[in-house]
C-alpha cells in the first residue's frame, strides 16, 4: 500500500459569474439611452400638439369676421343679440335689440361681469341695452345671458332667459343645447 502523501490542495474556484464593471456600465448606458429617447419623444409630441394649436388659431384668424349675432324669441318677443369686436380686438360691444316689437317690456344682458337693462315706460319700447366687455383673446367666444320680459312681464318679476355664445367668426350657439342659432348681419 502506498503511503499517503500530502493531500493535494483543493482547487480554488474562480467566480466567473461575479459582475464585472463592464456589464454595470452597459446597464447605465442603456438606461441613459432610454431616458434620452423618452425625452426626445416627449419633445416631438409636445411640438406636434403646439403645431396643432397653431393651425387651429390660424383657421380661427382666417375665419375672423369681427361680428356675430343671434335671432332669439323669448317670452313671445323677437330679439337680436349682436356682438361687434372693435378694430384693435381688445373689446367687444354687445347689444340687445327688440326691433320695436310691441310685446317687449324688459330687456337685460349679462356678460363677463357687466350688465345692462332697459324697461319700456309709458307705452314706449325699451331702448336697446349695450355693454362693452374687454377681451384678452380676440378669437375667443363671448358668452351672454339674455333676459326678455314680454307683454305680461311686471316690474320685479323674473324674466325668461337664454344663454348664447357669440364668436367673432360670425357663429352664434345656444350655450345650453349647443345648437347653432340663425342670424343675418
Write up what this structure looks like:
With 185 residues, this protein is of the alpha+beta class. It has two domains: 17-62; 67-174, Immunoglobulin-like, CATH 2.60.40. The protein contains one helix and nine strands. It has a five-stranded antiparallel beta sheet, with no helix packed on it. Strands 1-2-3-6 form a four-stranded antiparallel beta sheet, with no helix packed on it. A hairpin with a 2-residue loop joins strand 4 and strand 5. The chain is elongated, with a radius of gyration of 37 Å.
Provide a quick synopsis of the model.
With 185 residues, this protein is α+β, with helices and mostly antiparallel strands. It has one helix and nine strands.
Set out the fold topology:
Blueprint: H1 21-62, E1 67-74, E2 77-85, E3 91-97, E4 106-111, E5 114-119, E6 130-134, E7 142-149, E8 161-166, E9 172-174
Antiparallel strand pairs: 1-2, 2-3, 3-6, 4-5, 4-7, 7-8, 8-9
Identify the notable features of this structure and list them briefly.
185 residues; 1 helix; 2 domains; Immunoglobulin-like; elongated; alpha+beta; 4-stranded antiparallel β-sheet; 5-stranded antiparallel β-sheet; 9 strands
- Proportion of beta-strand residues: 25-35%
What's the β-strand tally? 9
**Element-level helix/strand string:** HEEEEEEEEE
Shape descriptor reads: elongated
How far apart lie the N and C ends? 125 Å
Percent range of helical residues: 10-25%
CATH-assigned fold name of the largest domain: Immunoglobulin-like
Class by SSE composition: alpha+beta
Quick check: average pLDDT?
81
CATH class of the largest domain: Mainly Beta
Number of domains: 2
Query: Segments where pLDDT lies below 50 for 5+ residues?
Result: none
Amino acid at each position: 500500500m502506498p503511503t499517503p502523501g500530502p493531500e493535494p490542495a483543493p482547487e480554488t474556484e474562480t467566480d466567473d459569474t461575479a459582475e464585472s464593471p463592464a456589464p454595470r456600465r452597459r446597464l447605465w448606458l442603456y438606461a441613459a439611452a432610454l431616458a434620452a429617447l423618452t425625452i426626445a419623444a416627449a419633445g416631438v409630441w409636445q411640438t406636434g400638439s403646439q403645431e396643432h394649436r397653431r393651425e387651429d388659431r390660424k383657421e380661427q384668424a382666417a375665419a375672423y369676421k369681427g361680428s356675430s349675432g343671434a335671432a332669439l324669441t323669448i317670452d313671445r318677443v323677437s330679439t337680436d343679440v349682436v356682438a361687434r369686436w372693435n378694430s384693435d380686438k381688445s373689446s367687444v360691444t354687445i347689444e340687445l335689440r327688440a326691433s320695436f316689437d310691441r310685446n317687449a317690456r324688459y330687456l337685460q344682458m349679462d356678460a363677463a361681469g357687466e350688465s345692462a337693462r332697459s324697461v319700456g315706460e309709458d307705452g314706449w319700447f325699451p331702448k336697446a341695452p349695450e355693454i362693452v366687455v374687454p377681451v384678452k383673446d380676440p378669437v375667443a367666444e363671448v358668452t351672454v345671458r339674455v333676459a326678455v320680459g314680454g307683454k305680461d312681464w311686471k316690474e320685479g318679476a323674473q324674466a325668461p332667459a337664454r344663454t348664447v355664445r357669440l364668436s367673432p367668426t360670425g357663429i352664434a350657439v345656444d350655450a345650453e343645447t349647443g345648437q347653432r342659432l340663425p342670424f343675418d348681419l
